[in-house]
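INSTRUCTION: Work out how this chain folds

Token vocabulary: learned, describes local backbone geometry

RECORD BEGINS BELOW THIS LINE
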Amino acid sequence: MPQANTAVSPKDRFLTVYGRKPVLEALDNPDLEVDKVILADTAREPAAAEIQRAARSAGVAVHRASAHRVKVLAGNGKQDQGVLADVVAPRMRPLNAALSAKRLPARVLVLDGITTPANVGMILRTATAAGLGGIVVPRRGVAALDPLVVKASAGVAFRAPVLRCGTAAEAARALVDAGYRLYGLGSSNGEPLFDAELPGRAAFVLGGETAGVSAEVAELVTGWLSIPMPGDVESLNVAAAAAVLCFDLVRRLS
């Protein structure tokens, strides 16, 4: 069983939003806990003063940093507008912590190479609505958890049960070692999803928009599932496929 790492990275505790409007929206939302705001030392215009006032009203500390440092922390050099905020994501944790807990999540999604923020955001919203125990969002190879993802999730990303790790392959190995049956979704030759008998503990890999499940992860897959499509359509968008999967899992519990 993997051992929990007591040193949790800030990237596994916070969602970072950047840009004046997203930061102001986070500060004005009473349902969100903003840990801190970082403002570029070159930001002196009225918008910067408005952010400082909103932070003061919310009791949130504002730190000054160089414009370059803000760009590095935001991970987006074109749209940060000299400000970012770290928002607490209470259900986000490292994958190894989830697999070391006394009660493991029964159903887990693994995102593998999904690079479109809108798809990641919609998957987070759908999986959270369906009550899944975890959505593995690797730090590499998948769209960053940024304001575009938050917007696509309609804000649900802040409270989604996100599990962080380095890569999808790393996640697949850890899940298999923890006793999960690993399924790949989307293969046309897979067993029809609605007919498949699923074990009590299972993880489902959603592959990227163009390449599908990566070769390294595919080697660890123990079963392939397909969504029956009697109409003349080759495939579904990955977010749509995730929705079908998630609510079939809900159906099985009824």
